[in-house]
Amino acid sequence: MDNNIQRYNETAELLKVLAHPVRLCIVNGLLQKGRCNVSYMQNCLGVPQSTISQHLQKLRSAGIIEGERNGLEINYSVCSKTAEALVKLLFNDSTEE
């Protein structure tokens, strides 16, 4: 048995952050599109900009996404390879059923 409790704690925290439908949708959408801004996400998801911003902050704090400023807008992309692999695994399997 693996005694590296820190690794399990980090993985559990990643799963906690991803365990929300809007955040899963944001990460999956970013993986499909590559990068996009809050306005694009708002149009796709149909939720208020403030709600998306709150979810983006949680994803950023967890190191799952990063933002790059381009003038007045920020374009977000997935930067966590672990989160990328996990979300791809979750949604690639579900599309084949």
Automatic annotation (TrEMBL):
Keywords assigned by UniProt, alphabetized: DNA-binding, Transcription, Transcription regulation
Taxonomic superkingdom: Bacteria
HTH arsR-type domain sequence ranges: 3-97
InterPro entries on file: ArsR-like_HTH, HTH_ArsR_DNA-bd_dom, Metal_resp_trans_reg, WH-like_DNA-bd_sf, WH_DNA-bd_sf
Name this protein carries in UniProt: Metalloregulator ArsR/SmtB family transcription factor
Species assigned in the record: Clostridium tanneri
